[in-house]
Amino acid sequence: MASVVCKLDSSSVGSIQESLNSSYVVPQTDAAVFVSALSNGDEEQVLSALSADSLTNVIMAGLIRDNGLQSPLNRGRFYACHSKENVLEGVAIIGHTILFDAFTDRAIQAFAAIARFESAIHLLMGEHMNVRRFWSHYSSERQSPRHVCPVLFLRRREPFESLHRVRGLRLARRDDLELVVSAQAAMALETSGVDPLKKDPVGFRERYLRRIEKKRVWVLVRNSRLVFKTDIIADTPQATYIEGVYVSPEQRGKGLGRSCLMTLGKTLFNSTKAIYLFVDEENARTRSFYSDLGFRVTGQYDLLYF
Questions:
Q1: Are both 116 and 238 inside the same structural domain?
Q2: Can you tell me the distance from the alpha carbon of 182 to that of 185, in angstroms, rounded to the nearest whole number?
Q3: pLDDT tens for residues 164-215?
Q4: Number of domains in the chain
Q5: Contact 142/116 with Cβ under 8 angstroms?
């Protein structure tokens, strides 16, 4: 971890902006906490801290396992918050997306203070009450979310028992890129209000192609048409987090999505203990779909888009 220390007050704003590799002391009424930028070599300690059962922990652990602690592929910087007694109080990634696991309110306040100097935030994601606490420390007149999406964190721990398998369900290939990119962009627009193919078409395709090359996208293509897809965002021994589940409009309500997820689930449970996903809190039909598949509501999360 970096070792330079400075105070988070008005006199140190410039030094923070100039030195994001430093450790920072956050003044409190009772004691100080230290926020340190993490570097490669700290992975074992951080992954141990992220072992608690939460959606954000699995996403952060997946990024570390895939890319290490320092990588432009993370699209953010990892930080740890310690008490003055060197007790870990939280871990966060702050950048394009903000995710955090904090054990104390002062750790949340410390991460919010660091985030105020980050200009490229697109998404804040976390457990409902923790996001509220973060926002109370972070918010300002300069910036407010353009879209807030309450979601439910769903989890399934039991392996799928069905022997039925969907013929043709496979890992995506490079030549599937345009099919899956179009579907993913439509879902992103529905969730976030932004079409990534208009905002950043080149970067969006590059990131999705990297996901395909890492064997994280599953598809079912029939007659050159995409009828099902889903993405594995994080893959750890504790849990696999999936999102971007898509079923073509003409196949919805026919049981195809259920069969594909059960087929894929049997494969995923060979190397993980649980499958995680989230659904829009207000989408009763989708909630019912996953409930019938044995997914149970485990928490309430918020997605704040900027």
A1: no
A2: 5
A3: 789 999 999 999 999 999 999 999 999 898 999 999 999 999 999 999 999 9
A4: 2
A5: no
151 found inside a domain: no
Q: Are residues 83 and 213 in the same domain?
A: no
> Which domain covers residue 101, as residue numbers?
5-144
Question: Would 163 be classed as within a structural domain?
Answer: no
Same domain, 91 and 205: no
DSSP state of 21: T
* Rounded Cα–Cα distance for residues 102 and 99 (Å): 10
Question: What is the pTM assigned to this prediction?
Answer: 0.86
Asked, for residue 102, whether it belongs to a domain, the answer is yes
Residue 162 lies in a domain: no
